[in-house]
Amino acid sequence: MKKHDVPQDNSKTYQGQNKLVYAVDESGHYEGVKSSGWEVESFATQLAVDDLNEQTNEALAQAQRGEVSPLAYHMLARRFDIPTLAGASGFFQWQIKRHLRPAVFAKLSDKKLNRYCDTLKISREALLTLPSQ
Amino acid sequence: MSEPMAFGLASALTFAYLPFVKISGMPLIAYRMPPKTIIKKVCKKLNIELESRKFSSPEAGMQALDDELEKGNLVGLQSSVYWLPYFPEDMRFHFNAHNLVVYGKTEQGDYLISDPVFENPVTCAYDDLKNARFAKGALAAKGLMYVIRSAPSQCDLAPVIKPAIKKTAKMMNGLVLPYFGLKGIRHMAKQIRMLDKKPAKYARLYLAHIVRMQEEIGTGGAGFRFMYASFLEQASEKTNTPALKECAEHTTDLGDLWREFAMLAVKYCKKRSDINLDEIANKLEQVAEQEAKLSKLLLNAIA
After folding, report:
1. Of A13, A38, A47, the CB nearest to B88
2. Does A22 sit within 8 Å of B90, measured CB to CB?
3. Could you say which residues of chain B have pLDDT below 50?
4. Of A73, A91, B94, B147, which has the highest C-beta tally within 10 A?
5. CB B147 within 8 A of CB B61
6. pLDDT score for B140
7. Are B290 and B250 in contact, with CB atoms under 8 Å apart?
8. Residue A110 sits in a domain of what CATH number?
């Protein structure tokens, strides 16, 4: 990549930060050049973020209708999915899937709830309720 | 020593497609060796004595960090991106193998951090840093901490450069498994062709994931190919090998080719009708061919 080809697209995802890119200057030598973002990269990031937000909102709506437990929303709101939450909390995936059912979640022991609180870094009250909208 | 030089000496350039390590439900795609390996290798090559420690108790880990800072040492840490509040919201996800350097503490007790992703130093509160260091899950850091104990006053880079290049060239040819090096790239091209049979939304997210792994993670762009080119240029001067300069130019073209691949992939994500999965996969196979050529050029250059 030539130095003058380094994209400066002011990506929203960088939040005003710059990133270092190595590029070739006029004399053919490499040097570090600051880039304020690349449209291609930020589109990919945005697509992934939008998808996560969509999933989170869907889980929130489902939890409000009582179809899934609040855990479904809090898990996604903290950018976890079932495999990553299983890794981070020490529960098995099948346990988490069970806990996503409102009836099962309502009867969870304090010990298990605390494990979720620790992993998600939220208070017990927050875990048991949904944000009001 | 420059970042590209360290990168090159550690033979860090590679490609790995790991379907069994999941990052947000997608395979882990790496364009370089894990940072832990890079740090260790550079230190070994340059006779730097490095101490690395893991901790079972978060409190002990934070105490050890404080102790080192008090002695005036710089401390390298492995941490999770998600729990570092100074990261832009859109870049926070559960990725545990992010490395940073702590160089001190403010009067309020916040840590002063030099993070490779940011141009300027950032600060982080005790609890947040603790959470980030001791996040569990895939690639968990377990509080991993590095401190340099002693370093030779001067070192001669020239004799270690060529073996490092040789290792990279050989690694690109791949191991037995189809997930590494050239085979890994071709495997990924095959996966892209098969996206046909998946829901359109999954196909778009999958391609976006590849582009993020290539461009967003780390510095330098094009999956570290530009950084390696910069290393080859320096290596050519240090060892007086003009052939390496040609390799650097080839690596630059290779980086450009990776970026073209990213552009095509994102074009597909944008639902443009003038692009299909075969074209993207073909581009990637072209990349694999050029990587193969690079491997040969490198071996010839140092022979």
Report:
1. A13
2. no
3. none
4. A73
5. no
6. 85
7. yes
8. 1.10.260.40
Same domain, A87 and A119: yes
In a domain, A43, yes or no: no
Which domain does A33 fall in, by range? 3-37
- The structural domain count of chain A equals 2
The list of chain A residues with pLDDT below 50 reads none
Q: What is the pLDDT of residue A119?
A: 92
One domain, residues A80 and A118: yes
Residue B151, pLDDT score: 81
Q: Is residue A42 part of a domain?
A: no
Q: Do B227 and A22 touch (CB under 8 A)?
A: yes
Q: B12-56 pLDDT, tens per residue?
A: 888 888 888 777 778 888 888 888 888 888 888 888 888 999 999
Residue A46 in domain: no
Give the three-state DSSP class for B37: helix
d(CA B23, CA A83): 9
pLDDT of residue B220: 63
Q: Which of B131, B212, B256 is the closest to A45 by Cβ?
A: B212
Q: Are residues A30 and A88 in the same domain?
A: no
Alpha-carbon distance of B109 to B125, in angstroms, equals: 7
Give me the residues paired with residue B232 across strands: none
Residues of A in contact with B269 (CB under 8 A): 43-44, 47
Distance (Å, whole) CA A96 – CA A87: 11
Does residue A45 belong to the interface with chain B, where contact is any CB pair within 8 Å? yes
Specify whether A77 is located in the same domain as A117: yes
Q: Are residues A67 and A31 in the same domain?
A: no
Virtual torsion, Cα B63, B64, B69, B75, nearest 10 deg: -130
Cα distances (angstroms) measured from residue B192 to each of A47, B179, B187: 18, 14, 9
Examine the domain organization and report whether A63 and A114 are in the same domain: yes
Residue B76 is predicted with a pLDDT of 92
CA B162 to CA B157: how far, in whole Å?
10
Q: What is the pLDDT of residue B176?
A: 67
Listed in sequence order, the residues at least 6 apart from B249 whose beta carbon sits closer than 8 Å to its beta carbon are A28, B229
Q: A124 and A83, same structural domain?
A: yes
Secondary-structure breakdown of chain B: helix, strand, coil percentages, each rounded to the nearest 5: 55, 15, 30
Considering the domain boundaries, does residue A49 fall inside one?
no
Shared domain for A76 and A103, answered yes or no, is yes
Q: Position of tokens 């994931």?
A: B209
The confidence score (pLDDT) of residue B18 equals 85
Residue B89 has a CB neighbour count (10 Å cut-off) of 9
pLDDT at B175: 67
Angstrom distance (rounded) from CA B205 to CA B127: 33
Q: Which of A1, A12, A20 sits opposite B252 (nearest CB)?
A: A1
